[in-house]
């Protein structure tokens, strides 16, 4: 079979598969017809933080009632963006300055105390001045408390930060985490401040430009940092789809979305779709008609999936959402807001998970129409406006939230599992190091009462290996549960 024939067969297969997927019923986790608005007073106790367009500073408000108060020591900060809260909700990281030029990075207590500039690596050549448009707390970092940021448009870097209850943050070592070379057949980040990224452990969820069929195309991308987060990610550590085959065709030349977020435990990835998914998903393929006008449904909701590791099976990009092995939820806004193009009105994006996996927060913007901040309880698809209703003029951006009611915070990593099914050879009190034989691909570390504390996996299990556990794990008395490679 010659090259042309192979390309035709591959394209035909993808076209047939695409048609069959889009003609099937929507997944059971599609929340389109059950979308509803909630009551702000019914939200759990907590607060959210955001910026106010045209006004310097950063504002904090209770979740249950809208009462925005300027966070002290931020009143002179213009163009704040890339906000993110620490796991305990006590520290905020953010950038100050133009999204298209160099910006400064600050860490501050949510009470306005101990504001500290965290210096980061700067570009050393023209054309990449947007080096710190994106910065996030690196949750689950093997380096300890750290921030992960975009350096140039093709590097990830991390900087350690020491946090103390009654002292200013202290910057530590700055480390290269991802290195993607420039030039043809390579890739670079789309580092727009509204694009966002999700980070946990050895996982990064964002948008990259990647080489496909001799040209650069955009992709919603999963990056696995090697050596469980201690290595430097490169092109081999990016999950590739079947669509990335040389003969692949898609309607836009690119499959990508925006508004990327990751749950605090790394279990869930959330984004606006763009072209991804069938017409079950609020995206550019799906349309709605109102008063004689037809609109695409991009930015009229979001989807949630599992993280795709670089070693995960290759599937079509639509299947990341549509296949129940990978897809988790498809969430549409209430029907009243399915009007207007995404840039005109009802543009929902800027997503961020709370410290509870059940709640996300995002912004509603656009040139016209209502603007505000919404909290979404995605399992029930309940959308609750937490800013003033009928607001047509004030734009709020970059929202993050924290729930202070512990009964409302029930994340997967906190749920207990029964260890009784594991035999005595598979569980033992942990030591500082764990020896893996050539048949063992990884293990989980659990506390005595069954709470998962840490996980380790490796790509290749063809040799013996000794793994050193982080001190945060070894201080707990725990069990090791090993998983044996069936091969």
Describe this structure in words.
- It is a single chain.
- The longest helix has 20 residues, at 3-22.
- The chain is mostly beta strands.
- It has helices spanning 3-22, 319-322, 471-474, and strands at 30-31, 36-37, 46-52, 55-62, 69-70, 80-85, 91-96, 104-109, 116-117, 135-137, 146-151, 155-164, 167-179, 188-189, 198-200, 203-212, 215-224, 258-262, 269-272, 287-290, 293-296, 301-305, 327-332, 347-353, 359-365, 372-377, 382-385, 396-403, 433-436, 440-447, 452-457, 465-468, 478-484.
- It is built from three helices and 33 strands.
- The protein has a five-stranded mixed sheet. Strands 2-27-26-25-24 form a five-stranded mixed sheet, with no helix packed on it.
- The chain folds into two domains: 6-407, TolB, C-terminal domain (Neuraminidase, 6 Propeller); 417-484, no CATH class.
- The chain is globular, with a radius of gyration of 23 Å.
- 6% of the residues lie in helices and 38% in strands.
- Residues 1-22 and 124-131 have low confidence and may be disordered.
């Amino acid at each position: 079979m010659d090259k042309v024939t192979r390309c035709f067969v591959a394209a035909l297969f993808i076209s047939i598969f695409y048609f069959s997927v889009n003609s099937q019923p929507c997944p059971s986790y599609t929340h389109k017809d059950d979308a509803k608005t909630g009551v702000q007073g019914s939200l759990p106790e907590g607060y959210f933080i955001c910026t106010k367009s045209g006004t310097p500073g950063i504002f904090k408000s209770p979740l249950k009632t809208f009462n925005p108060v300027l966070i002290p020591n931020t009143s002179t900060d213009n163009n704040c963006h890339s906000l993110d809260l620490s796991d305990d909700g006590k520290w905020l990281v953010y950038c100050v300055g133009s999204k298209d030029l160099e910006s400064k990075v600050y860490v501050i207590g949510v009470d306005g105390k101990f504001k500290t500039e965290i210096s980061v690596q700067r570009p050393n050549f023209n054309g990449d001045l947007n080096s710190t448009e994106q910065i996030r707390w690196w949750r689950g970092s093997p380096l300890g408390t750290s921030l992960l940021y975009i350096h140039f448009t093709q590097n990830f870097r991390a900087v350690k930060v020491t946090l103390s209850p009654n002292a200013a943050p202290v910057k530590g070592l700055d480390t290269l985490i991802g290195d993607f070379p420039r030039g043809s057949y390579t890739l670079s980040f789309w580092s727009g401040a509204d694009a966002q990224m999700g980070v946990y452990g050895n996982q990064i969820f964002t948008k990259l430009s990647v080489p496909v069929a001799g040209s650069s195309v955009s992709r919603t991308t999963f990056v696995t940092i090697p050596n469980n987060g201690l290595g430097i990610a490169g092109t081999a550590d990016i999950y590739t789809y079947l669509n990335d085959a040389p003969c692949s065709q898609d309607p836009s030349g690119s499959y990508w979305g925006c508004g990327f977020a990751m749950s605090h435990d790394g279990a869930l990835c959330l984004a606006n779709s763009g072209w991804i998914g069938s017409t079950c998903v609020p995206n550019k393929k799906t349309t709605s008609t109102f008063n004689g006008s037809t609109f695409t449904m991009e930015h009229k909701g979001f989807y949630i999936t599992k993280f795709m590791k670089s070693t995960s099976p290759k599937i079509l990009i639509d299947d990341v959402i549509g296949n129940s092995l990978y897809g988790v939820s498809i969430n549409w806004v209430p029907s009243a807001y399915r009007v207007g193009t995404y840039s005109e009105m009802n543009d929902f994006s800027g997503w961020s998970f709370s410290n509870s996996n059940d709640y996300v927060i995002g912004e509603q913007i656009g040139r016209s129409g209502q603007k505000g901040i919404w909290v979404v309880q995605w399992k029930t698809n309940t959308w609750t406006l937490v800013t003033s209703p009928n607001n047509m003029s004030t734009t709020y951006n970059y929202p993050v939230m924290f729930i202070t009611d512990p009964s409302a915070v029930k994340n997967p990593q906190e749920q207990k599992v029964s260890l009784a099914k594991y035999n005595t050879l598979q569980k033992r009190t942990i030591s500082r190091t764990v020896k893996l034989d050539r048949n063992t691909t990884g293990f989980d570390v659990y506390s005595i009462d069954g709470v998962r504390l840490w996980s380790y996996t490796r790509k290749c299990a063809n040799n013996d290996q000794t793994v050193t556990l982080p001190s945060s794990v070894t201080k707990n008395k725990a069990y090791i549960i090993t998983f044996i490679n069936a091969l």
